[in-house]
């Protein structure tokens, strides 16, 4: 919650930003996603891209910046392809081991700073 | 302009329905249409064919208790009943007009071939046309037909949850959805989950982004889960009214919110008695919320005594 006497400032950038930062949560049916290592997580992301977009889609650089213990990760995508990459993540529904899974995007921002606060859950 | 309400127009009726809806609300959806699928409209002419029995909408929907517990978390939660009939051929479509089917909030047909597609686009009185997108359609979606359906206020549905599992299904779904959107110019499309399990659901923003992959623009993509769903509901509502303008209901069936209409009618009658000019031919019927055709007499009455409930009504 923001105190009444704290002044907030709003900055708007008109420049096109090179990256899109994304907070993604992964759920896998009947599996604890907290156990996943960053390498495994990245592998699943690459699988998702490969499945929908093919080898060319998988060649875009997606960086896994941070992985929290509850399966929530921060990703960095190149801006120009971000909607395709996002859609590929959305369309991913089963892991290689035939377990049902879902990537759900929680927040998107062109700035990493933008992911600090989630306006959806603010009172 | 109504506030955007994210709607999932297709949640299948099955035992863990409440789990699906719980998660859907968490993700940001507010309205759900609970879908009951009828695999064919066969009538009971032959002795072997059993007559098609459609459960009343109350059996399809969640019960009041669970609705109330959901509304504690999400006050704007709303559930709608939807019936989807699979049309194998053009016969028995008159069955769609029967009272037990018309009792559902939304009526959809799933077309399987060109003939039924044309029939649904041109004559059938339905709200949604859907396809089996997981296989190749087997007929081309003609622009003229889609425009005709769009003109009649019918929407086309794209269901995404089957595409999440298998690669071939995913491929077919994407290609069918793209051809549907290309043929229709991106208008009159709704996107829904069709989910059986919670894991099939995606959040509204994921769906909007997915729609962009299918070839919709950003605003069209947003419309596909907000505005067009509202349009479907209005279309369904208009089916039950005369020329989409006036509807007549029995005064005993008025909901609690609209009881004031009766109250006003009584006061009006009283005042009329004192004025001693009686013309009470259509006095017995009360128009409901979309009855814009109020007689001038009544309008004058309303401006005379603008009370609190009436103000509310006018806002509507």
UniProtKB/TrEMBL annotation, chain A:
The keyword ATP-binding does not apply. One of its GO terms (molecular function) is ribonuclease P RNA binding. One of its GO terms (cellular component) is nucleolus. Coiled coil: none annotated. SUPFAM superfamilies: Rnp2-like (SSF160350). One of its GO terms (biological process) is tRNA 5'-leader removal. Transmembrane segments: none annotated. It comes from the Eukaryota. Keywords: tRNA processing. Residues 19-92 form the Ribonucleases P/MRP subunit Pop8-like domain. PANTHER family: RIBONUCLEASE P PROTEIN SUBUNIT P14 (PTHR15441:SF1). This is Ribonucleases P/MRP subunit Pop8-like domain-containing protein. It comes from Candidula unifasciata.
UniProtKB/TrEMBL annotation, chain B:
It holds the Pfam family RNase_P_p30. GO terms for molecular function: RNA binding. The keyword tRNA processing applies. InterPro entries: Pol/histidinol_Pase-like, RNase_P_p30. The keyword tRNA processing applies. SUPFAM superfamilies: PHP domain-like. This is Uncharacterized protein. The lineage of its organism: Eukaryota, Metazoa, Spiralia, Lophotrochozoa, Mollusca.
């Amino acid at each position: 919650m923001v105190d009444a006497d704290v002044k907030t400032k709003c900055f708007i950038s008109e420049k096109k930003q090179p990256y899109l930062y994304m907070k993604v949560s992964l759920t896998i049916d009947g599996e604890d996603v907290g156990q996943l290592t960053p390498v495994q997580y990245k592998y699943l992301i690459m699988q998702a891209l490969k499945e929908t977009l093919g080898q060319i889609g998988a060649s875009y650089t997606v960086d896994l910046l941070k992985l929290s213990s509850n399966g929530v990760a921060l990703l960095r995508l190149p801006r120009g392809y971000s909607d395709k990459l996002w859609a590929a993540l959305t369309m991913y529904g089963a892991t290689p081991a035939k377990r049902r899974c879902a990537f759900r995007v929680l927040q998107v921002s062109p700035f990493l700073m933008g992911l600090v606060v989630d306006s959806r859950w603010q009172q | 302009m109504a506030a955007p309400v994210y709607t999932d127009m297709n949640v299948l009726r099955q035992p863990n329905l409440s789990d699906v809806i719980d998660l859907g609300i968490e993700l940001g959806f507010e309205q759900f249409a609970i879908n009951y699928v009828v695999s064919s409209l066969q009538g009971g002419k032959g002795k072997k064919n059993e007559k098609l029995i459609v459960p009343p909408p109350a059996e399809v929907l969640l019960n009041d208790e669970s609705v109330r517990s959901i509304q504690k978390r999400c006050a704007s939660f709303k559930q709608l009943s939807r019936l989807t009939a699979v049309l194998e051929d053009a016969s028995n479509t008159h069955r769609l007009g029967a009272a037990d089917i018309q009792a559902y909030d939304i009526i959809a047909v799933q077309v399987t071939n060109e003939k039924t597609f044309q029939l649904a686009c041109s004559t059938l009185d339905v709200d949604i046309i859907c396809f089996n997108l997981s296989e190749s359609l087997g007929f081309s979606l003609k622009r003229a037909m889609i425009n005709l359906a769009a003109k009649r206020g019918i929407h086309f549905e794209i269901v995404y949850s089957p595409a999440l599992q298998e690669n071939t299904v995913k491929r077919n779904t994407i290609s069918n959805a793209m051809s549907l959107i290309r043929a229709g110019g991106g208008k009159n499309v709704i996107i829904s989950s069709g989910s059986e399990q919670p894991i099939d659901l995606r959040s509204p923003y994921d769906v909007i982004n997915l729609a962009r992959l299918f070839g919709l623009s950003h605003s069209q993509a947003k419309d596909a889960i907000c505005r067009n769903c509202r349009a479907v509901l209005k279309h369904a509502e208009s089916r039950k009214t005369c020329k989409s303008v006036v509807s007549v209901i029995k005064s005993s069936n008025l909901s609690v919110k609209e009881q004031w209409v009766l109250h006003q009618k009584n006061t009006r009658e009283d005042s009329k008695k004192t004025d001693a000019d009686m013309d009470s031919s259509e006095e017995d019927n009360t128009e409901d919320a979309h009855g814009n055709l109020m007689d001038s007499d009544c309008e004058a009455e309303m401006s005379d005594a603008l009370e609190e409930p009436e103000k509310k009504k006018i806002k509507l």
